[in-house]
Amino acid sequence: xxxxxxxxxxxxxxxxxxxxxxxxxxxxxxxxxxxxxxxxxxxxxxxxxxxxxxxxxxxxxxxxxxxxxxxxxxxxxxxxxxxxxxxxxxxxxxxxxxxxxxxxxxxxxxxxxxxxxxxxxxxxxxxxxxxxxxxxxxxxxxxxxxxxxxxxxxxxxxxxxxxx
Length: 164
Description:
The chain is mainly α.
């Protein structure tokens, strides 16, 4: 059993339980604790997904920075896609690109690929080892290094500190 992953799973489940209930009564806390422990033990008995997560002040600070960077990129790409929809004369250059990631952690790679997919204009198609295949609405650049710089690097520098 991976204690760190189990504890993080239980804490995450408990926080979600409290947020969904929208109140801090004794009943909510006790029932949430019981349900969180049971679900954590049942579904995370052998999981090790959170073992790569770093729990130091620098990593926690980078989590907050990452959230702001992600929201900024989300807003920026939403406006870009909306502008292309409203002005159909704007050129688009859709295509599939291949990018590389330096992240070694499975959870870090998963969060990176989800961040790319959640950002309008890009969609992660496949993750294979350190290579990510992405459908991009407006391909810019001619090689993998340019594509990696445009899509991955803005997220990766924060996730590397958090997950390694």
